[in-house]
Each structure stands twice: as structure tokens, then as C-alpha cells.
Batch of 4 targets.
Target 1
Amino acid sequence: MADESGSGQERSTMRSVERAFDVVDLLSDSGRPLRLAEVARGAGLHIATAQRILKVLERRNYVAQDSAGYSVGAAALAAAHSFLVGNHLVLTATPVLQELAEALGLTASLSVRVGSARVLVARVEGSSPLRYQLPVGGRLPLHLGAGKVFLAYMDGAARAEVLAGMERVETAAGPAVPMDEYMSQLDGIAVQGYAVSRNERVVGAVSVAAPVRSRDGVLLGVVQVSGREEDLSDDRLAGATREVVNAGASIAARIR
């Protein structure tokens, strides 16, 4: 009986922890402060439950509150900094990204998967700056750009979960890609070992991305270079692709 009670308490505690992370994730993705009702609705919580969670997170500085509402607090930034300066994959990849950016003059970056999104965890600017800023720490979609490499190596069930509700894939420049054609593209990426993206997230931008895989074949992250269309013209694309694929292999070799 005592074991059953303890087990129930443990499940309740774990659920509370999960709800707290749900709230932090919601605030991280919002891009703006949220009111209490918005937090409760977005996290699927009762108002009173959301308020209790927010108060605990606020005491620990993972959430901040002002007249505009609730937003992520300074403690979350400190945790992110600890990851960036201490994560083995990031530390290993950074010198490779520096070499890649210098060789191609393009912005080189590394992403890891976080649920149904990818997060940029390292970036080195090239000599040809982008018109937009690749956001370190920001969540980006898996179905566009370098995210397609993550999807390419997922099984059918995992792909379906990420792409649930999508009948076609919308890009920045259009037109929309039918889902059967998109799935064929993912299969092609898995076979060839890299992805080329044009005008998908941002009009006028081109990227080449390749996997970073462990010795056991686990996908650790995705390395990419990004530039303007004039910086990654067709005559430069083959050479850039080789460099990116080699960079992915180099990071993987160094991390073992």
C-alpha cells in the first residue's frame, strides 16, 4: 500500500515538473510577454494551476513578470549559457564551423533537435553577412531548411508526428509542395546525405546542410552553411556541399 502511495506521489511530482517545463517552453516560443489567461490556455492548464506554476518559476527567476505579462527570466539565460560553454558537441563543432565559414565565406551553424523543432546552438559568421540573423537559441521548424535533415532520418511514424495536420509544405517564396512530393524529397536527402534549400524560410536565402552522426549512427545534430543566392550560385554549390558534408564527418570524428 505504501508503495502504491509513493508511486502516485511520484507521478504527481513528475507531472508538476512537466507542466512547469510546458510553461517555460510556451513563454520561450511566444516571442512576447503573455498574460496569465494566455499561459493557461497555451499550456492547457486551469488558471489557478498556471498561476501556481508561474509563481514558483518566478521565485527561481525562470519567469519574469511586468505590466506586459509573463516572459522568460534571467535564470533561463544563465542555463542556456552553461549549455553553450560546456556542451561537448558545441565545443567540438565550433572550430570546424570556424574553418567552414572561413573557407566558404558563408555563415556556418550547428542545430540540434528539440522535440518537433530544431535549435541553433552554434554559429560563426562568414565574410558575406546574411540579410537576416540566424537566431542562436531560437526554435526553428523541422520541415524547412536544415531541419529537413532531421526529418529525413526519422522513421515514418516520427515524421508523421512532426508533420501532423500539414497537407502541403508552405515555403517563403512558394509555391506549396504537396506532401507526397515532400516525402520523396526527404527520402532523397537520406540517400544523398545532404539537403539544399532555396527560399524556404527566407526569400533570397540558400543553405546546404548535412548530418552529424555518432559512431552508432545516432543523429547528433545538423551542420549547415547559409548565404544569399548570389553567394551560393549553382557553380559554387557542389564545392560548398562537399565542404559541409566533410564538416559533418569531421565533427563526428572529433566527438568520438
Note: The chain has nine helices and ten strands.
Target 2
Amino acid sequence: MENTYLWLKVIHIFGVVLFLGNIIVTGWWKNMADLTKNAQIIAYAQRQVTLTDFIFTGGGVLILLVAGMLNVYLHDMSYETKWLGHGMAIFLVSGVIWGAVLIPVQIKQSKMAKAFASSGEIPASYWKLCTTWNLFGLLATLIPIANLYFMVFKPA
């Protein structure tokens, strides 16, 4: 049973790497593209933000959730344990931000980017959505980074 715990932990950590790595790198590349003010570059980057979020952020979430929950179930852990309960709650808060704000904003920006890629004119509404995406994206990035504390130090 010990090997099961460790293998699931490895898989869980792999999910965390995909998840955190992608949200950090995606934020960086999107902001670098936006700074160019070049409609074609921004449109391409925006498509990639949506695609990589689906594949890597979503995939990472799925992997870390399944591996983590399997470890809880198979090894008689309890979400009432402070570090585990807080970790799950923090993770859910980040998920709510992604689902309620970031994904809808990304979808709107992708549709806008598809239109302005050919016209070359980026509407002011795109930049307004960028402000929302950046603010909530920073929050949704810092929250899982803070979650590392609970997962690593496991405070009692």
C-alpha cells in the first residue's frame, strides 16, 4: 500500500507541475504578446492561451485531483485534517475564479482576437478584458502557489 501512496503522490506532483507551470507561463506569454500591440501576434497568443489552458491547465487539474483524491480514499485520509481540508478549499477557490471569470473572459477575448486578426484594429473592450484577466489571473495563480505551503508543510 505504501508504494501506491508514493506513486499517486508522484502523479499528483506531475499534475501540479502541469497546472502551475502552465498558468505561470501562459500569463507571461499572453502579457508579452499584448505588449506588442500587434493584432496578429495577440490573436495567435490568445488562441494558444485558450488551447494550452484546456490541455495543460485542465489536464493538470484532472491529474492532480484524481491522484490526490485516490490517495485520500485509499489511505484513509480525511479532509478534516487541517492541511488537506485547507488545501482542497484553496484549490476550489482558484477553480471558481477560473470557471466564473477567467475562462469566460478568455473565450470572449479569443472571439474578439479572431475578428481583429484580419482587421488589425484591437477594440478597447479587448484591453478592458485584459485588465480583468490579469487581475483575476494573478489571484488565481497566487492562490495555488500558497496552496503549496499546505501540501508541503502539512500544518497540524
Note: The CA atoms of residues 43 and 82 lie 43 Å apart.
Target 3
Amino acid sequence: MNARALLIRGLIAGLVAGVATFVVAYAVGEPHIDTAVSIEDGQPHTHSHDEAVEEEGGIEVSRDNQKTWGLLTGTLTVGLALGGIVALVAASTIGRLGSLAPSQSTALVALLGFVAFVLVPFLKYPGNPPAVGSGETIGDRAALYFGFVLVSVLAAVASTYGALKVRERLGTYGGVVAGIAAYLAVVVVAGQLFVTVNEVGAFPADTLWFFRRASLITLATMWGVIGVVLTGLVSRLYAAQTAEAERRQLAAGL
């Protein structure tokens, strides 16, 4: 159960998650992006296969390529990176989260990662489609978002560590309640202190809602598949190594 073994399995989980996320994003998210793009351009919601989007540097990328090969490349890249990171973090927690088995601690890392890195920051600063937000404030908005993500992740790490310490005196239930309460206290206060961004303007509310819902579903797919696949692979690895250790112990006692 070393870092290398878990990293390989994390990359496998990330690859599977990247493919699954592409399918979900293409089916659930891209139609709403097309709608937002048509609103931004002030045109009816019709996009031909030859339509091209000119980006910085004069490179033209068709919308079809953006939402197929471009999207697949992005989800695979993010999936591999995220799977590797989750695996390494899970490897560092094995044996350090009380009596949790490696598969259980891996599942917990994936769950806490989704909550701290995605869900809670999304509640404060949800994603916006094209045509929403001023280009002049994009730097400030990005700084606010990543600042809140940093606070959320650090709070989750500190709360988990504190919960393990409190568990020694209050038991598992008391430790879990104390950890959750500490995390919620930090993110609620941070949510009040961080500036609220409201640049929606006259953008259609239903389109905005559908886009944000699709964004959250896509992110949940990425983290969920990584968590499920990596937990399964770690469980199989642990079972195989445990069986091997028992066989060796039995052979040594003969």
C-alpha cells in the first residue's frame, strides 16, 4: 500500500472519470453553453458545423471541435491530474484516520475533497456561462473564487485533524460532530466576509440555472467516479496484500 501503487490506480480512476465526465458534460452541459453563446452573440440558437470561434492569437476553433475533442482533452487531463492528487492524498492518510481501512480512508478523502474543493465554493461562487460577467472583473472574480477554495480546503484539513484529536476524548461520534461544526463555522464566516459577485444582469434566469445545475452535475461526476473507482481498486489491492501476508504467515508457522 505505497504511494506508487495508489498513484497508478489513481491515474486509472482519473482516466475512467475523464471519459465519464466527457459523456455527462457533452449531454448535459454543452446544450446550455450553446444557448449562452447564442445569447452572447445576439443570434438565434443555431450553430453550423462550419462556425468558428476566433480566440487570442488568431487561432480559429470551431464550436464543434470545442465541445467534442476539446472537451474530451480537457476532461481527460483534469481527470488524470485529479485522480493522481486524490490517490497521493489517500496514500498519506492510510493508517492515520483512526481504525479506517485503506478503502474507507480513500473514500473519505474523495468525499471531503468534493465537499471542500467543489461543493462549498460552488455555493458561494457558482459557475457562470458565456455572456455572464464583465471581462474587466474576471481577474478579481478568479482571485475571490480561488481564495475561497483555499480557505475551504484548509478548513477541511484542519477540521479533520482536530476531529481525530477530539475523537480520543469524545469518541467517534463526538469527533465527527466537532469536525463538521468547526468546518461549517469557518466557511460560514468566510462566506460572509468574502465579497458577493452579482454580474448576471438581464441574462435569462432559467438558462443560468440549467447551466449551473449542469456544471455541478459534471463536477460531481468527475469526483464521484474517481472516488468509486479508486476506492474499489484500493480495496482489491488491500485484500490481495492481506491474503498474501496471511499465506506467508501460515507458511512460516509450518
Note: The chain has one domain: 3-132+200-253.
Target 4
Amino acid sequence: MTQPVTAVPALHAKRIVFTGKQQLHLEAFDPGEPGEGQVVTRTEFSLMSTGTENIVFNRNFDPGTHWDNWVKYPFYPGYTLVGTIQKVGPGVTDRFVGQRVAYRTGHRSHALMAAKFTYPIPDEVPWEEAVWFSLVKIAFMGARAADYRLGDTVLIIGAGPIGQMSVRWARAAGAASIIVVDPVPGRLKAATEGGATAVISLPIGEAREAVLAANGGQLPRVVIDGTGHAAVFAHALTLAARFGTVVVLGDTGQPTQQTLTTDVINRGLRIVGAHDCHTDEQWHDATITDYFFRLVKSGRFPMQNLTSHMFKPEACADAYGIANRDRAATMGILFDWRSE
């Protein structure tokens, strides 16, 4: 049942904005009133997508790429938020005031959203776990591209946020061997907790023998490059089994630096790109998010201990600063909007 609430004063709503390369601040804005089929949400937490947002923050991309076409100022970073519905507009019958929902928009205290693009969060799923839903969805696209089989062998390169979610999807899909390589030892504990059967703390160019040892002397059938670093791609090709699949899940800003090797022809490799936008009628934001929440509720998608930092929105410069200065020490960087 909907309940009347006070309209959101314009000056009480805030959002993070990039105004240029490495320039940002918190600005006031008016979220507006909900129209037909719309709701206004009050954000609890938003999660920084450290890969995407810091490529944008630093303009670390080549001219003419899709990044270059996308990033125009003012730019509103972020795309993964959780909060409660504060107001509902005419015609909304399947959402209600006080309902916990996940939604995709920039980092902000309040959002005006089409109700159909808000995704109910079960009471059993904590805010700090639910807020990962967008990164979970991106990793799901990598899992679909991998076309997992029961008992599969998988190598995941990179144990950052996307790599962590990739580990969990490989586990949910029934992979028997899930090997994670990352030179940062602190990230590997979370990978093990998420379902990795072996973790290797080495640069990917030095990890071949350790990968073979962890997989019974064989190269894995699936390799997922979730790093977004162009130089990793060539190494990924050398580590896939004959007729294996290499999934390019990390989206680099320098795609021309991703080079092929003789492994593609000599061993008949399949290279597949995976991206957030690769949805269809069956699998899209709503269905993947619902599936994720059901897996979390059942204990089949462990999400504990993934928050490394939490910032108030007023400290957004510090948040992006640490994501750039000490990326290896970060995992989930959350903005806490509860007092805004």
C-alpha cells in the first residue's frame, strides 16, 4: 500500500559529478516528482565500479574509442545503487513506498526512476551485498560467453571486483577447477571464499607453470580476462587449452594494444567479448538481478567480506584518490548516502 510522504527538497538531493579529467565534486540537484510509471528512491549505498569509473576519471582511453564517444562533461559516474522507494507516481501498482530496491543510475542521494527499472531486494539480502548487483550482472555476461559445462576448468585472470564475481558465477555453474591469478595476495582470500579451488599470486606472464600444476598438468578450457589491462590479453591466449575459449570481460581503454598470438590459429581458440549491454529477452538486468538475489539467499553465491572502504559522499575526492593511489588495497568501495 502506498503512503504519502513529503516531497524531496531540491537542495537536499546530491550527486557526484565529473567536470573534467580528474575533476569532481558533490552537487545539489532536484530529482523531480514521479510521473506516470515512475518512483523516487532514497539511496542507502552506491558502489564504485573501480575499473570503469577510474578509466573515465583519468580519461585513460584512446581517441575514437567508445569511451571517447561516451565521456562528455558534465559526466555522472556510477551505475549500481540500493535504496528505498520514497514516492510512487500514477499507474505504479507493483512498487510501494518503503520497498527496498536496486537501481542503476549515477552516484546520488535520490533518483527519479521508471518503476520497471527498480529491482526488489529480498529482506534476507543485506544492503552491502545487494549493492553489487550491477557488477554481478556484468560478470554473468562473461559466464554466458564462457558457455560453462558441468565439471569445467576455468582460469580467471584478475581478482578485482569483476574477477570476484566471475569466480562466483563459475562456482554456481558447476565448474570443477576455478583457478584465480592475481599478483596482489590480499585479493586472493576473497576469491577462495567465493569458490576458487586454487589461487596464484604472480603476474600473469609468470603464472603458466603454476596454472598447469593447479589443473592437473592441463591448461583450462576457459580463460576469463577480467582485468581491463590491454597487455594481459596476449598472456590469456597462451593459457587456454586447445580449442578452448578466451573471454574478454575487462573493457580496456586501449583496445589497439590487445594483440593476437599464434595460439589463436595453432590451437583453434575461440575469443568472445562480453559486455554489460549483451542482454536478450531471457537475461537482462531484472532477471539476472533476481537470480543473483535468490542465489545469495540460498547461500550459493557468497558475498561476505567484499567491502574494503566506505566513504561519505562529501569525501568523494578521497574515494577516487585511494582507488587510484592504492588500487591493490581496494575491493568494494561504497558511498554511504544514509545521512544525505
Note: The longest helix spans residues 133-146.
